[in-house]
Design brief:
The complex is a heterodimer of chains A (106) and B (396).
Chain A: H1 2-12, E1 31-32, E2 46-50, H2 60-64, E3 70-72, E4 77-79, H3 89-93, E5 99-103
Antiparallel strand pairs in A: 2-5, 3-4
Chain B: E1 4-7, H1 9-19, E2 24-26, H2 34-45, E3 52-54, H3 59-71, E4 76-80, H4 82-87, H5 89-92, E5 103-108, H6 122-126, E6 133-136, H7 140-154, E7 163-168, E8 177-180, H8 184-191, E9 209-210, H9 218-253, E10 261-264, E11 271-276, H10 279-292, E12 297-302, E13 304-306, H11 310-317, E14 322-327, H12 338-346, E15 356-360, H13 370-384, E16 393-394
Parallel strand pairs in B: 2-3, 2-4, 4-5, 5-7, 6-7, 11-12, 11-14, 14-15, 15-16
Antiparallel strand pairs in B: 1-8, 6-13, 10-12
Helix pairs in contact in B: 1-2, 1-7, 7-9, 10-13
Classes of the chains: A alpha+beta (106), B alpha/beta (396).
């Protein structure tokens, strides 16, 4: 067991490797040993665009965003598109109508 | 000389768990199973059994915590019945698909309503399609031995399925009879090293996703089907494993129990009765009496009900001209007993036409006596001569 620990620490920076399921029959038990990261931004159909000329940096969008993906920029706020799921709450809440939704083409 | 002590069926089940050195026990008391909870708690309080006894708020949690314990590598034990089993249903049909080798006794109780807390096979027969192995016991010695053997079967790498050791509520749970305690060293050697979570685990050193979302898409659907096929394969493997384990147990202890089905006085029998569970005792007595009167009757006892012993039964049935099946529960959809319905499904595998007559009796804790069995024998005799009763016969 100790040997195993040493081996794994070097491999994955302190984490243990995923379970090696090659010796378990593939029809035995539902387990997953491949991790697929899924971000909340992966299922977005529309993205928010901040019109920088209208934005006064009041932070209303930052306060209302349910996934807290709004990041501060020098004179405006912007959504992190990895996490933004396109709910458009920021568009509704922005008092200066500085955010619009644009359809995702891909 | 091994020690023999008097105990009831519930204590015998607890003794089986004690001998198997289980690590985690969760039980929620319900009549007629409560004695199991009491006996296990006593063993733990007395320091005889070094196990965690988890006091939980209901049967749903009983099986849920045992799933967790099993995933963490513990040998687990529980017991339930009737309404408790009904409340347990959600984790009950998840455990076998996770291939967790949990052993749980079903102290068979009739279903309600009408209100009833007494014996009957309705609970076990209702959950027979969930993917657990079901083994029905005839006496207290068989209960103790089967609980120990159940761990060998459940933890076998070709099986990896939970096992229900079923025995009649009231008739076995509260009936005291001498039971031989097998030497601990023999059991330790018999069970070998525990290896419970080699295939699926909650273990920080072997990270894995347990039970991920599977299905819907073509790929996911194929995967789902593959697990189902694997489960069915494990069930069929169990038939051989159960046979082997019983043979090994006989070698180690001298206790001889039929693993799948038992054929009693089937030599030159012209007709037979078929029984399951504790009623087999009355059945065997009735067969002995009938044989003394010169009637050529035998008895087929079903021990392993899931996986269903299709081949073994087909072989046994083909030896006779008629079979009376006696059930202690009801199959509502077929207007016959559940065992009888399964026997109907065996008939295409029998090379001749054998009339099967359904008998239902012993419901809600009533007794099935040698007189009842004599009626079943008589009906089989009539059917063998061509007078087949058309309807199910109810013993009231």
């Amino acid at each position: 067991m100790k040997k195993n620990k040493e081996k794994t620490t070097t491999k994955r920076k302190g984490h243990y490797p995923m379970f090696d399921s090659s010796k378990v029959p593939d029809d035995l038990c539902p387990i997953a040993t491949d991790l697929i990261v899924m971000n909340t931004g992966d299922w977005r159909s529309e993205r928010p665009i901040v019109l920088r000329s209208k934005c006064v940096k009041c932070a209303t969008c930052w306060a209302f965003c349910p996934v807290q993906c709004i990041h501060e920029k020098p004179s405006w706020f912007e959504a992190d598109l990895k996490r933004c799921k396109g709910c458009a709450i920021c568009v509704t809440e922005c008092p200066h109508h500085a955010i619009i939704m644009v359809e995702e083409k891909e | 000389m091994p020690k023999k002590i008097v105990m009831d069926g519930n204590e015998a089940a607890a003794w089986g768990a004690l001998l198997a050195k289980v690590d985690s026990v969760a039980v929620y008391p319900i009549t007629p199973q409560s004695g199991v909870a009491e006996a296990v708690a006593t063993f733990i309080a007395d320091g005889e059994l070094k196990a965690d006894l988890m006091d939980v708020e209901g049967e749903h949690t009983v099986l849920s915590v045992l799933q967790g314990a099993s995933l963490a590598g513990a040998r687990t034990f529980s017991a339930s019945c009737g309404q408790g089993l009904a409340f347990m249903f959600e984790p009950y049909f998840r455990s076998p698909n996770l291939r967790l080798p949990i052993v749980m006794c079903i102290v068979c109780r009739d279903g309600i309503t009408p209100q009833c807390v007494w014996g009957g096979h309705q609970d076990a027969m209702t959950v027979k399609e969930c993917g657990w192995i079901h083994m029905h016991c005839e006496n207290n010695q068989e209960i103790m031995d089967t609980v120990v053997m159940a761990y060998r079967v459940a933890e076998h790498h070709d099986v990896m399925l939970p096992v229900n050791v079923c025995y009649d509520g009231n008739f076995l749970s509260f009936a005291a009879e001498p039971v031989e305690i097998v030497d601990q060293k023999i059991v330790d050697k018999f069970l070998g090293k525990k290896d419970v979570n080699w295939h699926v685990a909650l273990d920080p050193e072997r990270p894995m996703g347990v039970d991920p979302l599977t299905g819907l898409t073509p790929v996911g659907g194929k995967l789902f089907t593959r697990y189902r096929q694997g489960h069915c394969k494990g069930m069929q493997n169990a038939l051989k494993v159960i046979t082997d384990v019983h043979a090994e147990w006989k070698k180690a202890t001298g206790h001889d129990f039929a693993p799948i089905i038992e054929e009693y006085r089937m030599n030159k029998a012209e007709y037979a009765i078929m029984t399951i569970g504790s009623m087999t005792g009355a059945g065997k007595d009735a067969v002995d009496i009938a044989r003394d009167q010169g009637k050529k009757v035998g008895l087929i006892k079903v021990k392993t009900f899931r996986p269903f012993p299709v081949k073994a039964l087909a072989k046994a049935i083909s030896k006779v001209k008629a079979v009376s099946v006696v059930d202690r529960s009801v199959n509502y959809g077929w207007n016959c007993g559940p065992l009888c319905q399964e026997v109907f499904a065996v008939m295409p595998f029998v090379d001749k036409k054998v009339p099967i007559i359904s008998h239902i009796g012993g419901l809600a804790g009533t007794d099935l006596t040698t007189d009842h069995m004599a009626v079943a024998i008589e009906n089989a005799a009539k059917a063998a001569k061509g007078k087949v009763p058309k309807e199910t016969i109810w013993f009231t």
